[in-house]
Specification:
The chain folds into two domains: 94 residues, no CATH class; 144 residues, Gcn5-related N-acetyltransferase (GNAT) (Aminopeptidase, 3-Layer(aba) Sandwich), CATH 3.40.630.30. It has 261 residues and is an alpha+beta fold. 30% of the residues lie in helices and 29% in strands. The N terminus is likely disordered. The strands form two sheets. Strands 3, 4, 5, 6, 7, 8, 9, 10, 11, 12 and 13 form an eleven-stranded mixed beta sheet that branches. Strands 1-2 form a two-stranded antiparallel sheet.
Length: 261
């Protein structure tokens, strides 16, 4: 049953803060602590997102003290202290503060978004591609594809992260020749739905598998009542960026991680 009509009337595009907040909720860390509006996250290794401080709001009066508290908590876990910095991070000078304290800037990433039903893939009422299967849980074949491309640390942390996903989610498997060859994940959050865990077997890349999964996610998100899709990717991954731009995604913002060992 439809949970909303994504085509009924004009929709205001989500702002970067709304998208970034949804991205935090879509990949929750097993352990979190609020620090003056920031969200300290820890997942015993692996994902940068789940092992860094989300900095979308700050309500404290002493920024340096809040940074030291985050550092203390990561130090207790034997982990480097990381902060995710984006265009709506608070306070506005946080990036410069961290650089002055000896933090190292990581690779640039982009946050991309598109309106559901916009140019490129599917729209409300369009059936998902026949070669893509949906499931409420991660099946072994899906896991095999997704985990294959991860570093050992990320593979170890992935089960706990997947177990903590919000309930309004779906796993997408592209099947070719009877075998699962591609994976994707989406979490619906109000008007937004994520594109996550995209992976394709090397032998079948550039044969439309990723596009099929993207179309299936868009069709599913429309049924959930979402109006926009979003994703996050490394800025240097030219192939992925070209794929996403080719189906209608546009850059909504950028982010990077600041790290201090």
């Amino acid at each position: 049953m439809s949970k909303g009509d994504a085509s009924s009337g004009p929709k205001s595009p989500p702002g970067l803060r709304e998208i970034e907040a949804a991205s935090v909720r879509s990949w929750p860390a097993p352990e979190t602590v609020a620090i003056d509006g920031w969200l300290w996250r820890y997942a015993s290794g692996g994902s940068l997102r789940a092992n860094s401080v989300a900095t979308l709001a700050f309500h404290g009066s002493d920024v340096d003290a809040a940074i030291r508290e985050a550092e203390r908590r990561y130090r207790e876990r034997g982990a480097p202290c990381r902060f995710t910095i984006c265009g709506v991070s608070e306070p506005g000078d946080l990036d410069a503060r961290l650089a002055a304290m000896g933090y190292a800037r990581g690779a640039d990433h982009v946050t991309m978004a598109k309106a559901i039903g916009g140019s490129g893939i599917a729209g409300p009422g369009v059936a998902a591609p026949a070669d893509v299967e949906l499931a409420a849980e991660a099946k072994p074949e899906w896991l095999a594809i997704y985990l294959a491309g991860l570093t050992p640390g990320r593979r170890a942390a992935a089960p706990a992260l997947l177990a903590g996903l919000p309930a309004q989610r779906a796993y997408f498997s592209c099947r070719r020749g009877g075998e699962v060859v591609g994976s994707g994940l989406s979490v619906a959050d109000g008007p937004l739905a994520s594109i996550q865990c995209m992976a394709t077997l090397a032998a079948v890349r550039r044969l439309g598998c990723a596009r099929s999964i993207l179309a299936a996610i868009e069709a599913w998100a429309a049924v959930q009542g979402c109006t926009h899709l979003y994703l996050q990717a490394e800025a240097a991954n030219a192939g992925a960026i070209a794929l996403y731009e080719g189906v209608g995604f546009r850059v909504a913002g950028q982010y990077h991680v600041q790290t201090k060992d």
